[in-house]
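To fix ideas, we reproduce below one chain and its tokenised fold.
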Amino acid sequence: MTREEALTALGLEGDATQDEITAAYRELAQMLHPDKYGKSKRLRERAEQQMRVINEARDTLLRGRAARRPASSSAVATAQDIYIEATIRARAAETARLAVVTSLRTMKERRQGRITMLVISLVVALVSSRLRGTVGALAFSISSMLVLWGGVDVVMLGNQIRVLKQRSLELLRTRDRAREIAQQAQEL
């Protein structure tokens, strides 16, 4: 992974500090963690894949950097600190939302393909039910199984799409709240 790809994966700009990289990673990891997707095996697998990408991005950006961090002047967070943290959270939420939206598009395309297969299989089942002999029985059996499999898959994909839509809305609200906080901190 190149530095530019890593910056994009974490939603950062080229001049990101070690603290900003760490904060962006932490925010994304919380938002994209596989545990957020409950019992859905497919969504958990996608989330695990996304976690691998952000882990690699973090490692790429932190590789070769000194372990130094700027010392804060006091234990109390300043308006600038709040602004920076809120901005990082907003960027991380938007980056995570885009990853979820990409998965959502993929699931919708897959569901549309399954619906098409389901309709074709149903037509074949209806036509083959009128045929006599081994070929008719075989065609009917195969198309009936495809209708059942397609129907189940369409329902499962529908559930996954629903979960991804909810997650996308949660991330959108998180992003907007973080932007509001950043704006309020900037006005201070």
Residues 66-75 have pLDDT under 50 and may be disordered. The two ends are 39 Å apart (CA to CA). Helices lie at 3-10, 18-32, 41-62, 79-128, 134-187. Residues 134-187 form the longest helix (54 residues).
